[in-house]
Amino acid sequence: MGTPRELVRYEQRFRRAGLPLFIEDFSPTHDIFNRAAPLLTLVFLAEMLGATSLKWHWWENVLGAAVGLLVLVGAFALLNVYRGRPFWSLPTRFGLPELGVFVLLPALLPLVPEWQWHQFFGIAVGNLVLVGAVYVVVGYGLIATTYWSLRRIVGELANSLASLVRALPLLLVFSLVLFINTEMWQVFAGMPVGFIVLSVIAFTLLSTLFLMVRLPKELDAIEDDVKSDPPLRRVQRLNLSVNLVIRQWVQALVVSTGVGLFFIAFGMLSINADIYAKWGVQTGSWSLTVGLMGHQMLLTASLVKVAVGIANFTGLYYSIALLTDSSYREEFLDNVSTELRDLFTARADYLALRAQVSQSVSGPIAK
């Protein structure tokens, strides 16, 4: 006969794998916002400064902040009484009343001294964005997923680099041709940093869009392969999709970073000041000369921009290759299938154990 403690171990395993929605009866009120209660409390209390003003004397601001703190704490204390909790206690359940107070009450403080409506909307929107971020990050296990991906990549870094060299010889040759191309340097060297950042974001969104289009088919294949029983609910499939997207992002980031560093090092060795002059390329806003064995190497802003541009293309290619190239599919999806097979087996055992515990206690399982 299973015990509630065994259920907790299963649920902890799902959370560590970045799949908290595999937990039955997972709810925002009990399982998401209460985990972020320390952060939300810190932000809530810090917003007492909304009751201050730059036009006041220091002692007036201290008094205003104290009054603001008293209003915030007192309001939540009264809400505790209304919700049947002890007066001085942190909420163990975050429903709409608690979230409404968190979003709107601090935003009202700037209206008291000077009717600062822009601060009212700024604080309210900021708090609402924070609530949404907490819901996504905690609810879909983004931190656990990212940590798992980094740990796996660090543990298998040598194999990943060897696989990269085997699978992308033509891409590396093509990238080298692009790197020593005058037009490539002129394009990226003259491009503002903000544009390069936007191109990185655009390529990331493009690779994510491609993955999301292909992902439903891949998930169906994985479920059929591992024989998930019972089938995943829609919200659990969404959790799994987010999990796989984060893993792809982390792997593409590692590969792109490695390629970018390679081209920075190669450029310092091969592109000197004379070549900059012949190509008509400026060094950029900054440059650094490094001596090595009598050779003067140049590290410039333009070199970094070109390396980032080449790395950006490589990251996009790698992201697409994860689902289309056989060698990458074997490395990415086959490893994922092996892990998910174990997780789906654990999920089936977990559901069976929940049914046993429910029958033994003749009531709902305590969270």
Question: What can you tell me about this protein's structure?
Answer:
Helix 11 (182-189) packs across helix 15 (301-324). The chain is built from 16 helices and 2 strands. The chain is flat. The longest helix has 37 residues, at 234-270. 25% of the residues are buried. Strand 1 and strand 2 form a beta hairpin. It is mostly helical and 367 residues long.
- Protein structure class: mainly alpha
* Helix and strand run: HHHHHHHHHHHHHHEEHH
The level of helicity is: over 70%
The number of helices is 16
How would you describe the oligomerization state of the chains in this entry?
single chain
Shape, per Cα inertia axes: flat
Outline of the structure:
By secondary structure, the chain is mainly alpha-helical. The protein is built from 16 helices and two strands. It starts with a helix and ends in a 6-residue tail after the last helix.
Could you give the topology of this structure?
Layout: H1 4-16, H2 28-31, H3 37-46, H4 58-82, H5 96-108, H6 111-114, H7 117-139, H8 142-155, H9 157-167, H10 169-179, H11 182-189, H12 193-226, H13 234-270, H14 273-279, E1 287-292, E2 295-300, H15 301-324, H16 326-361
Antiparallel strand pairs: 1-2
Helix pairs in contact: 1-16, 4-5, 5-7, 8-13, 10-15, 11-15, 12-13, 12-15, 13-15, 15-16
